[in-house]
Amino acid sequence: MSELFDLPSDLQNSYLGLVGLHLREALIPVLVGLLVALPVAQLCVRVRWLYAPVLWVTTVLYAIPSLAFFVILIDYTGLSELTVMIPLAVYSLVVLVPAIVDGVRSVPQETLAAATAMGFGPVRRYVQVQLPIAAPAIIAGLRVASVSSVSLVSVGMLIGNEGALGNLLNSGLTYNQPRLIWLSVVGTAVLALLVDAALIGLRVLLTPWMPRATRRNKVRALTVKEAVR
Amino acid sequence: MIRIDSVTKRYPDGTVAVDRLSLEIPDRSITVLVGPSGCGKTTTLRMINRMVEPSEGTILIDGVDSRQQPVNTLRRSMGYVIQNAGLFQHRTILDNIATVPRMLGWGKEKSRARARELMERVGLDGTLAKRYPYQLSGGQQQRVGVARALAADPPVLLMDEPFSAVDPVVRKGLQDELLRIQDELGKTIVFVTHDIDEAVKLGTTVAVLRTGGKLAQFAPPAELLSRPADDFVEDFLGADRGIRRLSFFPAAGLELLTTPVVAVDATAERIAEAGAADTPYLLVTDADGRPLGWSEPRDLTAGAITADRLLPYGRPFVAGTDSLRSALDCAVLSPTGWAVAVDASGRATGVVSQQVIAEAIRGAHARIGADAARDADTEPDDGKARKVAP
Ligand SMILES: Nc1ncnc2c1ncn2[C@@H]1O[C@H](COP(=O)(O)OP(=O)(O)O)[C@@H](O)[C@H]1O
Ligand SMILES: [Mg+2]
């Protein structure tokens, strides 16, 4: 059994080690992306005309191949994790910005008026009313961003040893070992599913206030909408 | 007192929503702003708590310009209730109601205790406390909206078409509840509606606005109905304002006939006496005095009166508290043309004919006319026409 997970020594890591690395390289960028997307999205909500150009910029950035990013970044960040994570963070914006904007905009006018009338300042209103109500949409965006990030980390193998489970795929091809290829591909897929499931769990935890029946449908519709974008 | 002093609101796109409006909103009463859609009611209301800033003019709260205090302090001293309630969908009912107290730093326990107290006050079952808004009916949500607005005990309550989105039965319940709460709390309420019936029912004073945000008339409902200022107001009041106006005349002064009322177990002697009253019908009651129905005098034989041979009496009115409108309605509904008066416990206190009601109406009109002539010289006395149940 243990032989199944034995890895060539040049990977300098155990299977679990690679899984941990993969998660790190995939999720830190999404988290950073979220931190960037929140203020950007809020700006887009406040200054309506900004939304279209911002969306355009995120789409163009998304269209840049990761290899091109690596070539540019290597001069600054070298053959490091950071070189892999920066493009991933940038890519996540294409999903996260519209998810947050749509979520915040979905807050009913009456709710906002009521908050203002009760003496909520803009900051308090954003943090205590708009963000919580946008949470389902934001988490829907996070699911798409995280899953795609998990699958994208593997390209890190292109710059040497930074692709985590992707390196395993590379080794499998080099040493012609199908076992390693399977370990890499299945591992990545399972990881993506687990991350997705964890985010669904987070949403259920955070939104006891959503009607049970429509909760699943609504969020699925959002997820599909964002994925299509 | 809230004083709106020649206030104009011009929106950036040039729309003049409110045009040199001046209003004095008296304390501890309900002032209704009514008018067709788009006439500037919401804009006016929102200028009071500065969600909309006036382009010209000032709004004085107890004599002080409302811009003198920080805007959020001003807003927290005014409860705000809107159509569809605008509840926080992500918070429980209890936390929704506790919002302003929490913001004012009351502490969690005190705020929640206060919220529970308010749930009771607005007629919400305590078991709803931990629910979320989506689990409540529209009417219940609206009650939560009212409770939330009252939570920090603000002296002023601003209400923007709060009951427009619920069905008529629920709406009537909410209106009655508001009047009851107002009797207990005595807030200064500014209530916006496009429904003239609601305005007449709730308002101590009613401001009728016309499109373009101009004040058409500002008067107590009874005066509005009896003396509309112009064609616009008259039109807005609708065709049956004459009948509706009767809501303001108490039925208490009606002269009730008691002789034609006989109990089922009445003696032949008593029936003969009743028959001698010379009314076309006699009202038969049960042994307790509750009305059963009408009968022609010659059809009644002592000891042999059966309820199923009687003519229905429609619906009675309560002599002490109902209005002439109610009495007239009962007479019109009764197949005999006579209305049955009862006391609070439902026992018949007498009967009255359409003719007598009509005379009472003429008398009431004559009194109003005399009052009007007198008022022409003196200041009108605020809220003089105390409404009676319609
Ligand atoms: N933010 C706004 N910008 C421009 N025009 C507005 C705005 N809000 C309201 N209006 C206009 O002002 C007028 C009065 O609106 P409102 O006060 O909402 O009327 P009501 O509440 O009586 O229906 C309407 O013609 C409306 O279209
Ligand atoms: Mg309005």
UniProtKB/TrEMBL annotation, chain A:
<feature type="transmembrane region" description="Helical">
    <location>
        <begin position="54"/>
        <end position="76"/>
    </location>
</feature>
<dbReference type="GO" id="GO:0031460">
    <property type="term" value="P:glycine betaine transport"/>
</dbReference>
<dbReference type="Pfam" id="PF00528">
    <property type="entry name" value="BPD_transp_1"/>
</dbReference>
<keyword id="KW-1133">Transmembrane helix</keyword>
<keyword id="KW-0812">Transmembrane</keyword>
<feature type="transmembrane region" description="Helical">
    <location>
        <begin position="133"/>
        <end position="160"/>
    </location>
</feature>
<dbReference type="InterPro" id="IPR051204">
    <property type="entry name" value="ABC_transp_perm/SBD"/>
</dbReference>
<feature type="transmembrane region" description="Helical">
    <location>
        <begin position="82"/>
        <end position="101"/>
    </location>
</feature>
<feature type="transmembrane region" description="Helical">
    <location>
        <begin position="180"/>
        <end position="206"/>
    </location>
</feature>
<dbReference type="InterPro" id="IPR000515">
    <property type="entry name" value="MetI-like"/>
</dbReference>
<feature type="domain" description="ABC transmembrane type-1">
    <location>
        <begin position="19"/>
        <end position="203"/>
    </location>
</feature>
<protein>
    <submittedName>
        <fullName>ABC transporter permease</fullName>
    </submittedName>
</protein>
<dbReference type="InterPro" id="IPR035906">
    <property type="entry name" value="MetI-like_sf"/>
</dbReference>
<dbReference type="GO" id="GO:0055085">
    <property type="term" value="P:transmembrane transport"/>
</dbReference>
<dbReference type="GO" id="GO:0005886">
    <property type="term" value="C:plasma membrane"/>
</dbReference>
<comment type="similarity">
    <text>Belongs to the binding-protein-dependent transport system permease family.</text>
</comment>
<keyword id="KW-0813">Transport</keyword>
<feature type="transmembrane region" description="Helical">
    <location>
        <begin position="26"/>
        <end position="45"/>
    </location>
</feature>
<keyword id="KW-0472">Membrane</keyword>
UniProtKB/TrEMBL annotation, chain B:
<keyword id="KW-0547">Nucleotide-binding</keyword>
<feature type="region of interest" description="Disordered">
    <location>
        <begin position="371"/>
        <end position="390"/>
    </location>
</feature>
<dbReference type="GO" id="GO:0005524">
    <property type="term" value="F:ATP binding"/>
</dbReference>
<dbReference type="InterPro" id="IPR046342">
    <property type="entry name" value="CBS_dom_sf"/>
</dbReference>
<feature type="domain" description="ABC transporter">
    <location>
        <begin position="2"/>
        <end position="237"/>
    </location>
</feature>
<keyword id="KW-0813">Transport</keyword>
<dbReference type="InterPro" id="IPR003439">
    <property type="entry name" value="ABC_transporter-like_ATP-bd"/>
</dbReference>
<protein>
    <recommendedName>
        <fullName>ABC-type quaternary amine transporter</fullName>
        <ecNumber>7.6.2.9</ecNumber>
    </recommendedName>
</protein>
<dbReference type="InterPro" id="IPR003593">
    <property type="entry name" value="AAA+_ATPase"/>
</dbReference>
<dbReference type="Pfam" id="PF00005">
    <property type="entry name" value="ABC_tran"/>
</dbReference>
<keyword id="KW-0067">ATP-binding</keyword>
<comment type="similarity">
    <text>Belongs to the ABC transporter superfamily.</text>
</comment>
<dbReference type="GO" id="GO:0016887">
    <property type="term" value="F:ATP hydrolysis activity"/>
</dbReference>
<dbReference type="GO" id="GO:0015418">
    <property type="term" value="F:ABC-type quaternary ammonium compound transporting activity"/>
</dbReference>
<feature type="compositionally biased region" description="Basic and acidic residues">
    <location>
        <begin position="372"/>
        <end position="390"/>
    </location>
</feature>
<dbReference type="InterPro" id="IPR017871">
    <property type="entry name" value="ABC_transporter-like_CS"/>
</dbReference>
<dbReference type="InterPro" id="IPR027417">
    <property type="entry name" value="P-loop_NTPase"/>
</dbReference>
